[in-house]
Amino acid sequence: MILGIWFIATIAKQLNWRWCARLVSGRIFDLLPAWNFFAPNPGQADIRLVYRDRSESEFCTGWEEICLQAVENRWRFLWNPARLRLKALIDLGVLLCQLQEAEKDNPDMILFTSPYLALLDRAMAETRLDPSSRSRQFAILASRGASAPRSLERLFVSRWHDLA
Amino acid sequence: MQSSDALNATLLIVSIGVVVSGCEHLALLKEFSVGGIYTPLLHVDSKIFRATANTPAGDNLYSQKLLASCLGVQLILASLIISFSVSRTVQFHPFLLWLLVVTCASVSWRRKVGGDGANQMTMVVLTASAINFTFQHNGDCCRAAAIFIAAQACLSYLVAGVAKTMSALWRSGRALENILDTNTFGSMWMSGLLKKSRFLSLCLNWCVIVGELFFSLVIFAPKPIRVGMLCVGVGFHLVNAVVMGLNDFVWAFVGTYPCIYWAATQIMSHA
């Protein structure tokens, strides 16, 4: 009976019925899965987290990348912890873009959301790019192409935040 | 083959995946501290986080130490299940399985993002197995758990196939070429191969779509075809692991195949 109800609930989740979404907003610890892998809109770009610093004289450094993309590793079919890091970046980047769209009438609200704060926290953990750096800004880029030349699209740029 | 044999085999394979995944999480433990990609600030939207912020309880709840402990327990339990399943000399208590379910769920909760279909299937299998072992005196429960796991696996392939059929990008034959042209899930040599041959790209796309759409029919297939289809499934996941780095899918999804095989034999024997 429990398993039967659970299976029916899983089917309902796949059909994306509104009543189901109202009842269950998440996946409940992965027990109510979504089985649409890489579809209908598969990810076709790498999500990159970059940051730059600014000094008191308004001089801005160049953009530096964080969470560098993993080099193709012949052993990743067995052992691939890098996948966890990169998947987190993808999920946070996508969530941030969705929030940016949802809050376009009130953009300040995005500063208080978990994806923004998590990415900000990550960016602020990096060392200063210049001794005179006083504030930092991060950005989310989408890059297409596994090798150069790549095309870059800017998805999100944060506010400037003071460095400690 | 009994349903209990199928469930044991499924649990064994999935537990190997749990061990690999647990070790991968431990390798990235520093990412779960402040300043990491899995910072505790991921939970800033939650009531628990706001209620426990700046308290010792809150610090402990989202700490690396607690997560490492969960992962340690997860690894020990999964290893015990593997050794019990292989030796089949000792029946392990359902409490062990429920504890594994709780630790895996805790890790999933703490991680919050970065999960994938393999994590979901692993949780489904572990929870269904825990339910089975809780009511193991009831033979119907064992059969129900095996059927449930087989049904979830078949549903996953069917939904994936339908979602791809609905996608213009997949139907055009360009999806794989674009997905593989990334550093995250890609492979430069495979991407280059697909870009050179439009025909190969189109064929592979449609092979994936058709394969996923009709994989569920394995339940109704006679034995030689059934074995062939399951072997193709194993090959599919191995290729994904090599080309895309989706190593966790091998354990989670191939792990369900003993239950699929058993469910199919039951259907064919009653047909």
Question: What do these coordinates show?
Answer:
The complex is a heterodimer of chains A (164) and B (271). Chain A is globular, with a radius of gyration of 19 Å. Chain A has 164 residues and is an alpha+beta fold. In chain A, strands 1, 2, 3, 4 and 5 form a 5-stranded antiparallel sheet that branches. The model of chain A has no long low-confidence stretch (mean pLDDT 87). In chain A, a hairpin with an 8-residue loop joins strand 1 and strand 2. Chain A is built from 4 helices and 5 strands, in the order ααββααβββ. The longest helix of chain A has 21 residues, at 82-102. With 271 residues, chain B is mostly helical. Helices cover 75% and strands 0% of the residues of chain B. Chain B has helices at 3-27, 47-52, 56-61, 64-87, 94-111, 117-134, 139-165, 168-172, 175-179, 188-196, 198-214, 223-244, 247-254, 257-270. In chain B, helix 6 (117-134) packs antiparallel against helix 7 and helix 10 packs across helix 11 (198-214). Chain B is flat and about 60 Å long. The mean pLDDT of chain B is 92. Chains A and B meet through helix 1, helix 3 and helix 4 of A and helix 1, helix 5, helix 6, helix 7 and helix 9 of B.
Give keywords.
heterodimer; A: 164 residues; alpha+beta; globular; B: 271 residues; mainly alpha
| Quaternary | heterodimer
The span between the termini of chain A is 57 Å
Describe the largest sheet of chain B. none
Helix content of chain A: 25-40%
Helical proportion of chain B, percent range: over 70%
Most extensive interface between two protein chains, with residue counts: A-B, 63 and 75 residues
| Number of E-state strands of chain A | 5
Strand content of chain A: 15-25%
Shape of chain B: flat
Structural class of chain B: mainly alpha
Write a compact overview of the structure shown:
The complex is a heterodimer of chains A (164) and B (271). Chain A is α+β, with helices and mostly antiparallel strands and 164 residues long. Chain A has 4 helices and 5 strands; from the N terminus they run ααββααβββ.
